[in-house]
Write a structure and sequence with these properties.
heterodimer; A: 424 residues; mainly alpha; ABC transporter involved in vitamin B12 uptake, BtuC; 2 domains; 20 helices; 73% helix; B: 291 residues; two-stranded antiparallel sheet; 12 helices; 2 strands; globular
Chain lengths: 424, 291
């Protein structure tokens, strides 16, 4: 498919999404949807550098915050000088330009660094930028800055709908750019850097220039995602804008979805973003981070190529889960929601059930591998006991359920010599 | 003028003391990241775990936090060895350690942190020990014992680690893993086993560092995040895998941060130490005492 038809299809899908959101008639859906779309843009942008080139960027929050703070600076300037309010697309472009310049600079400074050193340098960049913003009184310093969201926007209605629409268009643009890169010479160049930078360089790939292009595009998109944010949140504060949450989410989403194509970040962002919105509203924001952490660990182990690669990898997946250490890890960490979240009731139970499915699957795979097919009964009865413990709020039942799980893990680990794990 | 001289000396001393603590947190990273090339970004989370264990034992039985942490060292060692086994099977053997291994540790960081939040809440916790209140006065120099004790024990710990690494067979094998795994195989040493031991030691140091942390300041689960950047900065600045380098770099960062926050205000301190790091990466990526 060529780029133009793809872009048009994306636009059409975007229009349907917007129409459906308007049709629901509740402004809350726009507030939640905005965050999910913002993550679509951020994870797509991260993936251009992280997924295509293999350079892990921990500084997503820095670029995002640069976009947001350039909007704040412009807002302050305009309200002090009583000028005409600048339309959002211009703010988007300015925020994008600032972040692109910083992205270019970062790429230039860190050219010699590979692998983990690059990741650490981006982390350092984020801290340095945060310190600068905290000490810059014009944009509010550590006190934070208020931005007054206009009441309404002509033709569209409430302002949040307008912000949603802007973010939707930006997401469409980001996906189109990502897909365009993927299918062009640029994308192949990026892939060579990811696979073997030295060999690429030796075969005449201009790795330096390509990396600069990648950091610039990626930075620009992140800055654009941040530019409307002050209008969305109303009160911008450095410690939350530069928070680690943006970094972990923009890494987790592409990894969960799959890093090799534009679909991966999209799927990951929609899945994880909506799950987090549900969890934040119904449980707590701490639970939301637990979900990200668990999904991240589950997916990098079970599905190394993300959801996109799951179908192709299903064989290696079950083989991996049958390994004793991985079986133990998956079993134990996925028990956490059962004991931490179940008490919250409601949605939390569904989320706990979702994670329980992972450990059930691990027990099934391990059971097959060591010829103890009844192994899956342990997570089953353990979960029943845990459920009963909550229903009757009985401590002894909780202990029993923990014991059932412990016996399950032990049965999975202790094998007789005859069937000891064959090397794969 | 004499007043500011006092201030200067005291700022340097307190920087050196906090540097000793930074060194304790960093020596684990120096082993895992510097020697084994495992980007264990979850290290601060294990430090916090160590703090909470020290806190629980101290609050219930009144044990000394440092002694507690020494007693639980084997448990942390086992935890580390287990994590390395998982890491090896899931990532190193598949050859996917760079991106996915990093994400794995990122995930572990959040799981540990949030589990602590959900269980203990976000209240600040602190411990009781005889050396937490008093201050040692030497002339015009003030040395609070709650800073001095962790610093000294931490230096002792690192000296022991350095002795183990340079004098014992296992220690030398650990140093060799970083250089040539094939040569190690030719000596009939299993590199995976050596790496497992090394990673176990690296996590074990987190237990002690956790006790130091909760002695120095009250702890809540997310304070560990402040240290992620700093300890990697120290590790890189000191030179990968060099413990003496890590100590020097930790003291340097401690002094620079302390001077900055004394004379320019605490809000500037992080930028200076990370500016240092960016400069090191740009000018001398091998670090101070790098290979």
């Amino acid at each position: 498919m060529r780029t133009l038809p793809f872009f048009l299809i994306c636009l059409a899908v975007g229009a349907v999404v917007f129409g459906a959101a308007v049709g629901l008639g509740n402004d809350y859906i726009f507030f939640a949807g905005y965050v999910v779309l913002q993550y679509v843009v951020l994870s797509t942008a991260w993936n251009i550098l992280g997924g295509y080139c293999g350079y892990v960027n921990f500084g997503t929050a820095a670029f995002f915050a640069l976009g947001a703070y350039s909007t704040v600076a412009i807002y302050k300037f305009i309200s002090e000088h009583d000028l005409y309010r600048m339309p959002m697309p211009f703010l988007l472009l300015i925020g994008g330009a600032v972040s692109a310049v910083v992205g270019f600079g970062m790429g230039y400074l860190t050219l010699r660094l590979r692998g983990a050193f690059f990741a650490i340098a981006t982390l350092a960049l984020a801290v340095v930028l945060q310190t600068l913003v905290v000490n810059w009184d014009y944009v509010g310093g550590s006190r934070g800055a208020y931005v007054i969201r206009p009441e309404a926007f002509p033709l569209i209605g409430s302002y949040i709908r307008y912000l949603f629409l802007i973010m939707l268009l930006l997401a469409v643009a980001a996906l189109t750019i990502a897909r365009l890169i993927e299918r062009s010479r640029l994308g192949y160049g990026f892939a060579t850097i990811r696979d073997d930078e030295l060999a690429a360089e030796a075969s005449g790939v201009p790795t330096l220039r390509l990396k600069l292009i990648a950091t610039t595009i990626s930075g620009a998109l992140m800055g654009m995602a941040g530019a409307p944010y002050p209008y969305y949140i109303g009160y911008l504060q450095p410690s939350s804008t530069f928070g680690l949450d943006y970094a972990v989410n923009s890494i987790a989403m592409p990894l969960i979805g799959g890093t090799t194509s534009w679909v991966g970040p999209l799927i990951g962002a929609i899945l994880l973003g909506s799950l987090q919105q549900v969890a934040t509203v119904t449980i707590s924001s701490a639970a939301n981070l637990l979900i990200v952490g668990l999904l991240l660990v589950d997916f990098v182990i079970i599905a190394p190529n993300g959801i996109v690669g799951l179908l192709r990898d299903r064989r290696t997946t079950s083989a991996a889960l049958a390994e004793p250490p991985l079986f133990t890890l998956i079993y134990i960490i996925n028990l956490l929601p059962m004991y931490f979240l179940m008490y919250q009731g409601g949605t939390a139970e569904w989320i706990a059930l979702f994670f329980w499915a992972f450990l059930f699957f691990a027990a099934l795979a391990r059971g097959w591998a060591i010829d103890r097919r009844w192994l899956f009964l342990f997570p089953f009865f353990g979960a029943l006991a845990a459920q009963a413990a909550i229903a009757y709020s009985s401590f002894s039942l909780t202990v029993i359920s923990v014991c059932i799980h412990a016996v399950g893990v032990l049965c999975g680990l202790i094998t007789n010599r005859r069937l000891a794990d064959a090397p794969n | 003028m004499i007043f500011s001289f006092d201030l200067l000396i005291n700022a340097i001393i307190s920087g050196l003391l906090i540097g000793g603590f930074y060194a304790a947190v960093t020596c684990g990273i120096s082993i895992s990241f510097g020697i084994l090339d495992i980007v264990n970004i979850a290290h601060p989370a294990f430090v916090i775990l160590g703090s909470y264990i020290a806190y629980i034992i101290n609050a219930n039985f009144g044990f000394d936090p440092i002694l507690t942490s020494i007693v639980v060292l084997p448990a942390f060692y086992a935890l580390g060895a287990g994590i390395y086994q998982i890491y090896y099977v899931a990532f190193e053997r598949r050859g996917q350690e760079s991106l996915r291994g990093l994400a794995f540790f990122f995930g572990l960081l959040f799981i540990t942190e949030v589990s602590l939040v959900l269980y203990f809440g976000v209240d600040y916790r602190y411990v009781q020990a005889p050396y937490i209140g008093p201050t040692l006065h030497v002339g015009f120099i003030d040395m609070p014992l709650r800073m001095l004790v962790p610093c000294l024990v931490s230096l002792l710990l690192i000296a022991c680690l350095q002795l183990v690494l340079t004098r014992t067979f296992i220690g030398r094998a650990i140093m060799a893993v970083a250089q040539d795994q094939l040569a190690l195989r030719l000596l009939a040493i299993d590199p995976t086993r050596i790496k497992r031991i090394a990673f176990g030691i690296s996590i074990a140091t987190a237990s002690l560092a956790g006790a130091f942390l909760i002695i120095i300041q009250p702890v809540e689960p997310s304070v560990g995040r402040d240290y992620i950047g700093r300890i990697f900065a120290i590790c890189v600045l000191g030179g990968m895998g060099s413990l003496p380098g890590a100590v020097i770099a930790a003291m340097l960062i401690g002094v620079v941060e302390s001077l900055t926050s004394t004379f320019y205000g605490p809000s500037w301190a992080p930028a200076v130490s990370f500016g240092f790091l960016l400069l090191t990466l740009a000018v001398r990526p091998a670090g101070l005492l790098g290979r």
